[in-house]
Amino acid sequence: MKKYIKYIVFGVVALILTVACILKIRDVSEETISYMPITNKTIVLDAGHGGIDPGASSSDKSILEKDINLAITLKLKELIESSGGLVILTRNDDSSLYEEDSNKTIRQKYNENLRNRKKIVDESEADMFVSIHLNAFQESKYSGAQTFYPSGKEESKGLATYIQQELKRVVDNSNDRVIKPRDNIYLLKETTMPSVLIECGFLSNEKEAKLLSEDEYQERISWAIYAGIQKYFGEYENKNE
Asked: Do 3 and 81 fall within a single domain?
């Protein structure tokens, strides 16, 4: 019995030290993650685009949205799983979800890919859905991450609020973008769980595109999203029970 108690104590100490190290590395206050309510929660993570669909790109085409989306998603997956959460990915490599057929047009392949991703979300019975994307615009002056949620979904709005707050605090305190409801995002339509789509920055902005391609910046983004998710489960759900 004493042997088992020793192992349990060792495990708790190891967990505390691990969390402390993570907090130190990311320079995040203990107030942000003062609880681990994510344990045993199932979260679907969608790395936008992939395969034949590159998404947006930097002005010189050297940085592709699909690659950055996947990198951030995999980092976020690691954080969630390290806290006892369960993750379902719509993709874990540079691929699209469609059956190869030489008669299919590019548009048909794009649409099939989206339908199959939506099917994963709808059949997952998950507690949350998060889709990771990047933005782009004709003018290069725009920058900053922004979180979108389906209109009329209060739980999704709550999740979006927490994530946007953490993106501002952890990634860029000068970011004045606010959460917005969207009715035209296919993957967010008729979801039964809290759902958001996060545009993590603008590839059309040269400075931000460079940052988005850097591992350390991707770490900060994934940490901010993770902190927002933790706060949602720890504060919003408890407040509304």
From this structure: no
Q: Which residue has the tokens 């085409």?
A: 61
N-to-C CA span, the chain: 38
Contacts of 182 (CB under 8 A, 6+ apart): 148, 149, 150, 151, 188, 197
CB 83 within 8 A of CB 36: yes
CATH of the domain at 139: 3.40.630.40
Q: Do 219 and 157 sit in the same domain of this protein?
A: yes
47 and 17 belong to one structural domain:
no
Q: Residue 159 belongs to what domain range?
A: 36-239
Q: Which amino acid is at 136?
A: A
CB under 8 Å to 234, separation ≥6 — which residues?
35, 37
* pLDDT one-digit tens code per residue, 160-182: 999 999 999 999 999 999 999 99
Ranges of beta strands (E only) in the chain are: 42-47, 86-89, 128-135, 146-150, 180-182, 195-202
Rounded to two decimals, the pTM is 0.85
